[in-house]
Amino acid sequence: SDPNFRVFDKTNKDGGKQEMAVVRFTIAMDGGKDGDSKETAFVPCEAWDSAADIIGNFRKGDRISGYGILRNNKWLTKDTQEERRELVIRVSRFFEVNIKSRSEVEAVNN
Q: Which of 1, 32, 84, 97 has its CA 20 to 30 A from that of 75?
């Protein structure tokens, strides 16, 4: 699905309000080839602040590459107070990828 972008108010230590932007999205990663089968992993990601503003304009199918830190987010559900966990990559840097296929990547690298 398209990136899920939202803005919310955060209370600072001094009691002031600050707008924060966050975008949640999924990156599909080619898992390589094992014989004739190809495995794809779908990795949940999030980005904050200015990165969120930019990534929020991308759409499903746009090619991006990025890196960040692996986070283990945990929270309690509102209704049952059950603990939930989710591993996500908090993207700190990214760039749009304009190369369309593996053969084009190999041509650039040779």
A: 1
Task: Name the nearest CA neighbour of 17 among 27, 25, 7, 26.
Answer: 7
Q: Are 24 and 71 in contact (CB under 8 A)?
A: no
Q: Return d(Cα 108, Cα 85) in angstroms, integer.
A: 40
At 12-25, the pLDDT tens digits run 888 888 888 999 99
- Bigger pLDDT: 103 vs 58: 58
Question: What integer is the mean pLDDT of 39-49?
Answer: 89
Residue in 30, 36, 90 with CA at minimum distance from that of residue 66: 90
Give the type of residue at 94.
F
pTM: 0.69
Alpha-carbon span 100 to 52, nearest angstrom:
24
HSE toward the beta carbon, residue 19, CA cutoff 13 A? 6
Residues 76 and 103: their CA atoms lie apart, in Å, by 46
